[in-house]
């Protein structure tokens, strides 16, 4: 069910923030039509809306944001106002519109930093790759030039609400004191310095500690950090993406490992019919793709257990076609799948050839003869890869391998990105 609403002032901002949420384990979608289906709300934790108001008149921008929050959000959701990383547009007016739609007592936490893109805020001044905002390219923007470098100055000139500023020292030193200051602040807009991802994580901690209902105003990183804290603390399970299992082995060891995983976890098992794969591969592929709807934790392609008498050429061709179907599923659900588990030497070989990375970065041996790595280069750069022979391991080895990959992804979320 949707738990986060992101309101951006243009479509690329909505898409960018949604992609950041998806990358960090929160399935997201940008809403194109005014009406949102029940299915979309059930499938996506994050809804992104574009009001297309960056260059609009301030009053129009304020009203558009107010209506968007009232229509698509509620006070139980995390509300995020996505702003441009160079503070172009109607930043203050749109904060007003957001707060107009929320119950009394809500604050807007403004974190105008995106360290990964070279945007930081120090002493209240926004720097773009070390250059003051008012001297950066944003100052000469044709539609919405930025004339000031201090975030608070920009907001005060556009908003009718009071502001309070928190410097780096405030967020890096006495946490209890700063959380109490947030709690007692009479200002409705709180503006924070942040020079690193660690600073952004600290601000999220402080807002959570304060107990004050906070709406996020930032280019995206702070919103994701707050979502992580809100959902972890409330017991809502945060997904770190799905895993695709492509299994060509028909060994009894493999069957036991898959059965164990199916008992323990949420898995959709899709049995591939070997004879159909060889004689009618396109039809078999289409059948499987129809089953690959929104994915649970694991989507498993496995060859049927009935041993067929295949010659060497047929066995190799079956492995190649199974790998092709695996890649087709990966392409279909590219925003969901973060890890590919490959079992059976021929299947692993063909799948990796089709994936076309420059190399496979070998990172760890999760269990004896069970390998964890990542694709390097190509379209699927960074995709987690697990490989294991069909006869290798105990009943729980497959489960342990997949949990290891999940842990690596979770560690990346805490740091603000998928590793």
UniProtKB/TrEMBL annotation:
Domain Four-carbon acid sugar kinase nucleotide binding positions: 244-398
Lineage: superkingdom: Bacteria
Pfam family, one: NBD_C
Gene Ontology MF terms: ATP binding; kinase activity
SUPFAM superfamilies, alphabetized: YgbK-like
Domain Four-carbon acid sugar kinase N-terminal: 5-222
Keywords: ATP-binding, Carbohydrate metabolism, Kinase, Nucleotide-binding, Transferase
Nucleotide-binding listed as a keyword: yes
Family affiliation: Belongs to the four-carbon acid sugar kinase family.
Descriptive protein name: Four-carbon acid sugar kinase family protein
Protein species of origin: Candidatus Fusicatenibacter intestinigallinarum
